[in-house]
Amino acid sequence: MGRRPSWPMRPLPDGRGEVWRWDLRALGELPAARAGLRARLGHAGFPPADEDESAEQLVMAFDELASNALRHGESPVVATVVAGTGGWLLDVSDRAPEAMPAPAVGRDPAQGGMGLHLVARLSVAHGWYVDEGTKHVWACLPSELAAHQPVSA
Could you tell me the residue range of the domain that residue 118 belongs to? Predict the structure, then answer.
């Protein structure tokens, strides 16, 4: 029998850079949060998504991890992006530490639920940990624009 894929339990890596944060309580807040993230990327000097695939991958990972936390975790959900010079550190937390991230296994992709697999493929590292009753699910995504320095807001 094959090995069951998992989302590894790992501590959050050090992130240094500008920090952007969203407090989310419902799925209906995600479109505005995605738009806010895209706007912040533009203000920090990163080109629009159609010119920079890594920015759109960050937005997609942000949406997947935040929607998972809102569907399967407990409020409050906090999505944090650390904009570093070499990439992005995305951390999404919720108050359901007993509900570990569980990538779908043996499911037809047409039925959905493949978000953790997608985020794992997009990221250079990913994991989760629990700190003081709060579960954190994180991913590090590369930036194709490593030469760009995020500008302070």
Answer: 18-142
